[in-house]
Structures are given as structure tokens and as C-alpha cells.
UniProtKB/TrEMBL annotation:
This is Adenine DNA glycosylase. Adenine glycosylase active on G-A mispairs. MutY also corrects error-prone DNA synthesis past GO lesions which are due to the oxidatively damaged form of guanine: 7,8-dihydro-8-oxoguanine (8-oxo-dGTP). It comes from the Bacteria. Pfam families: HHH, HhH-GPD, NUDIX_4. Keywords: 4Fe-4S, DNA damage, DNA repair, Glycosidase, Hydrolase, Iron, Iron-sulfur, Metal-binding. The lineage of its organism: Bacteria, Pseudomonadati, Bacteroidota, Flavobacteriia, Flavobacteriales. It comes from Aquimarina muelleri. NCBIfam families: mutY. GO terms for molecular function: 4 iron, 4 sulfur cluster binding; 8-oxo-7,8-dihydroguanine DNA N-glycosylase activity; adenine/guanine mispair binding; metal ion binding; oxidized purine DNA binding; purine-specific mismatch base pair DNA N-glycosylase activity. One of its GO terms (biological process) is mismatch repair. Its EC number is 3.2.2.31. SUPFAM superfamilies: DNA-glycosylase (SSF48150), Nudix (SSF55811).
Amino acid sequence: MIFSKKLITWYLQNKRSMPWRETNNPYPIWLSEIILQQTKVAQGLPYYMSFIEAFPTVFDLAKASEEEVLKLWQGLGYYSRARNLHVTAKHVADNLNGVFPVTYKDLLLLKGVGDYTASAIASICYKEAVPVVDGNVYRVLSRYFNIETPINSAIGVKQFKALAIQLMDHDDPADYNQAIMEFGALQCRPKKPDCFICPLCDSCEALKKGNVERLPVKLKKIKVKKRYFNYLIFYTKNHQTIISQRIGNGIWQGLYEFPLIESDTINKDTIVDHPVFKQVVENDEYEIVPYYSEPVVHKLSHQHLYTRFYVIKIDGLIKTNETQKKINTKDIRKYPVPILLSNFIDVFFK
């Protein structure tokens, strides 16, 4: 039995039950693919269910505000995915009458849709014979053929894409693409796969050569940057605080946060001398209390954030500027925030 047929046979016997596998409607399939980018199924499934419940059609998602979308996305990370999701929903609803493009090439024109997502939608919804190549596929192919070309190199991307095109089942692209992804997730796992119950074990080159655990090969990641965040949590007797929305193209664009001082050296004197503190507190009585004795380390893909929280209790009223929002603390959970701040909010604003 050829490679593709073995995978499809395995898939039909072992596939997990997923709500997006019960339909050929491109909207839920597109939604699931965007959510599951760089996210495991166990983590992404609750988010998918929340989005489908809140926005059952692409028109519902298009009508939502960006804040609503970011709030539902809170905790998934890589927030540009959520913003692109919203932009594409509005484009499909407003410019395409709610109808998703039906070819791989046209799907690629949608914001936030790359080669993998376009291939998945085109093959599953429209039976177009275009192969998906994600982390699971790289792992399966690199092991089966014992390929040591780095998967995150330009040469590797081309090599694996060409191999994927050659191997895929052109008569059943939907099941084949889902099969190889599921096979990588469940059977050909990153660590300690059970090779001796694998339907491909008799022809797997990496297994024959003892290379399973060291494949696929990846080039070393770029150097991780350290950043030092110091959040000022102003807190009044009548339970008011300040937040503001992050702008620009950096991390967490569109999310809310407390006033921030980014510095690796900070103490109470530098806080008091900071313009934000002077603007908010003016001549009121205040008390500054570090909330944690050690910084909270929050790890992003290319950045590690060493974060401290300073609770500043003031007797008077909070003074804000045009970029700040004064809110009652009971309303703070209505705003989309980074998971780092969400965790703090859950502890401090009980």
C-alpha cells in the first residue's frame, strides 16, 4: 500500500472527533485553522467553541468590535492573528457577500492566510489538490525519508513542499491532508513516538538508521531579548484605576495595560519622579507597595519580559490624560489584556 493510502487508512480509524471536521463550510474551518496556528488542539478547542458561539457566521464576526475579538482571544498569544481574523471577516462579509474564495491562490490573498491555511481550506472545502505543510507534516516527512535539511531554512521549505506535492493523494486531498497532520500529532509525536505500532515502521528510513529522535532538524532560534516591564497600578479608595490601549506595531497591539515604565533599574524614587506618576497623583497622599518580591518572568517567542507590579494607593481622584482610561475596578475584566496582566488581575482584583 502506498504512503498516502496508509495514512488515510490510519486516519479513518484513529482521527479525533473535532467540530470543524463535521462540516465543509469554509468559515468554521478557516476559524479553526487560524486559532490552531502555533496552538495545540487542547488549548485551541475552547477558544474555537467560544468564537463559534459568539460569532456563528462570518457576518457576526465582521460586525464585532476589535475589542470584542481581542477579549475572546485573550490568552492565546500572537494577537496579530486575532486582528487579521477580524480584518478578513470584514472583507469576506462586506466585499465578497460572505463567500470565501474557492481556490488556493485566491485564499492566499486574505489577510492572515498563508500557504498552510490556504492549502487546508482549499483541500478540505473545495477538494483542491494542494498539500499542507505544518510542523506535524515536516516531522513525518523528515523522519520517513530521513531528511536532515533544516525545516526552517529556505532550501528546506522548498524541498519539503515539493515532496508533499509529490506524495499527496490527488483523488482525496481533504482526507490526506488531515491524515498526515493528525498522524504527526498523535502517532509520529515530537518526543518518544511509539514507532513499533506505526503503520509506516517497515519503510521509515529514520527508524532504520536510529535517527527518529533527532529529526526534524531546525536552525537555532534567534537570540532572545530581555525586557523589563514595571506596571503602575493606581488604586483609589473608591476603586478606580487607570488603563490605556497599546498602539504601534509592537507586542500586544490593541490590548489594554496599566501605566508602564520600561526600565531595568527602578525604585520608589524613580517611580515618583516619572511623568505618569506626577500627572496622576499630583499632590495627593499616596503609598507605593511592590506586589511581588521577585519579577514575574513572561516568555514570548523572542522576548522574555521581567515584570514587576507596583500598587499605588492614592487618597484623591485619579487624573488622566487623553490616552488613558479611568475605570472602576469591577469593570476591568471587560477589557482585553495580555495574559500576563490577566493573571495579575485575577489575583489582585478578586
